[in-house]
Amino acid sequence: MPKNARFLICAALLIVSIVIGGGGSPSPVPELIVELAALVAFGAWWLAPKQRDNAPVDRPLWIGAAIFVAVPIIQLIPLPPALWHALPGRESEIAALNLIGQAGSWRPISTSPYRTLASALSLIPPIILLFFVSRASLQERTRLLGVAAALGICAALIGVLQVASGSAHWFLPYPHQTSGVAAGFQANSNAGADMLLIALVALFGYVALRRDLIATGLGKLIVGALALLLILTIALTGSRAGTMLVLLPLAAGGVMLFPKLGWPRLAMGTAVVVAVLGIGGTSFGNAQLGRTWSRFAHLSDARPELWKDTAYAIGQTWPIGSGLGTFEPTMTAVERLEVVDTAYPNRAHNDYLEFTLEAGVAGVLVLIAAACFLAVRAWRILRHTDSSRNRLQAVAAVAMLAVLGLHSIVDYPMRSLALASLAAMAIGLLSRVATGRGDVREVW
Description:
The chain has helices at 5-20, 28-47, 59-75, 81-84, 91-99, 113-121, 124-134, 138-165, 189-209, 217-236, 240-244, 247-257, 263-284, 287-295, 303-317, 327-334, 351-384, 388-407, 417-429. The chain has 444 residues and is mainly α. α1 (5-20) packs antiparallel against α2 (28-47), α12 (247-257) packs antiparallel against α18 and α15 packs across α17.
């Protein structure tokens, strides 16, 4: 194997996860392929030559990851009837099992064990990718940003072709994918926008870490054109939240590329760029851009009603939860008749509410602990390390996680294996690096 085999394995897994893993739970076969690829990559990584500058094991990070993985595993442990009968929200299940004489059987916390098992298996690629990135050197992490940016540019080009095809359904990798929008490798426009937003952050981060790329006028022109392509394609996705969140990568890019400008000037410059793009896009009269801008005039949708029903379902299963992956059957049973229509509620369109319903108080505590840990870790890197590369990677990681965290308020980006893998990469950028001059030796 080549000396950089471990990096190549990591990059290959990231590519497979993004290109194939964007279909979500309605596409179980691609998800299974990504999961198997992750296991193969994990085995190959251990066989590959060890590098001297591999980072040490980040124990605090892996303790947190183990706690997160433990949530669905605990939900799958069979419990005796005396215990699971006492769980909240199980009355209907007990009554149904009584009809067939199975009420006395052992049952887990999850109301749908197979769905929870599928959710647990979907954690395999992000966890393995997190392991790879956490053991990578600073130089290899920089290259991974370049890989993520390149994949985003490919997704943008495919998205432009998807928009151009209209009803011809060109380059749609999933049967349930909406035609005429720039979803790229993802199954829906919101996930496609998140992919492009993260790619924009990765592009700015990679260029900031490789200043030689913009040392010439031609280099600046190419980077600017690629950034413009990503921004315009984000608008072509038709995602309102994704279009508004473009401010975040632009601000992060300003911090990474122009650190001496200061926040007021960066904020003003970002606003000007967005205004110019918005006015320019409208002036060109592109139909898809026009549909995106017009969506901002009609902000009302079914989400608030869905959130009300989700909150009610949380009250029925609190504090234990119904089990990861069980939102759909749980919500179907409690949805109010006055809001029932031809569409079924497959997601809460608020990942925090959905995770609270499925994981209960344990999930809430895990999310809060994870957010606090990552915030402290990022702060310590930004304030207490002498390595400019490490700081730039931390800024990129925070911006990526912020995109996913903010969009999770109105959507479910982390339910995509592709986006979950990108989140794992971002968290890996905040992990400990190999000890050495200018590198982080100890962070929490």
